[in-house]
Amino acid sequence: MHLSLLAWLQAAAPAAPGASFLTGILPIVLMIAIFYFLVFMPMRRQQKNTREMIKSLQSGQTVQTSGGIIGTIVAVNDDTLILRIKPDNLKIQVARSAVTGVVPSDEGAKK
């Protein structure tokens, strides 16, 4: 009697095929959305800020390159910069894309 009651309950309430698909795919979609908001959005924002910083480079700014060289911009060309490196005032030409950041000047740090 107990087995027939269980069989009758299973037959009486069949699972909807769309519901099982939705419950299977919903966690995957949620994980992708969370991954997008936690990884891709900040990465895209950082790339945008870096592009804007590279476009706004001007003569006289002190910058650091990806190789660790710190120098002052002497001349700005289309896709290259000429940096003056202390203490010998050596001038080198680097690609704009090699600049990783603008170094704050000593005068700004004193204020």
Word description of this protein:
- There is one protein chain.
- The chain is 50% helix and 24% strand.
- The N and C termini lie far apart (88 Å).
- It folds into 2 domains: 2-53; 58-105, SH3 type barrels (Roll), CATH 2.30.30.140.
- The chain has helices at residues 2-12, 17-55, 106-110, and strands at 62-65, 70-76, 80-85, 90-95, 99-102.
Can you describe this structure in just a few lines?
This protein has helices at 2-12, 17-55, 106-110, and strands at 62-65, 70-76, 80-85, 90-95, 99-102.
What descriptive keywords fit this protein?
111 residues; SH3 type barrels; 5 strands; 24% strand
Q: Which secondary structure elements does this structure contain, and how are they paired or packed?
A:
Elements: H1 2-12, H2 17-55, E1 62-65, E2 70-76, E3 80-85, E4 90-95, E5 99-102, H3 106-110
Antiparallel strand pairs: 1-2, 1-5, 2-3, 3-4
Query: What is the helix fraction of residues, given as a range?
Result: 40-55%
The general outline is rod-shaped
Structural class category: alpha+beta
Summarize the helix and strand pattern as letters: HHEEEEEH
Mean pLDDT: 84
Extended strand count = 5
The number of helical runs is 3
User: Largest sheet, described in full?
Assistant: 5 strands, antiparallel
**Spatial sequence of strands, sheet with the most strands:** 4-3-2-1-5
Q: Tell me the β content.
A: 15-25%
Q: How many distinct folded domains?
A: 2
In whole angstroms, the N-to-C terminal distance is: 88 Å
Supply Rg. Answer: 30 Å
Low-pLDDT segments, ≥5 res: none
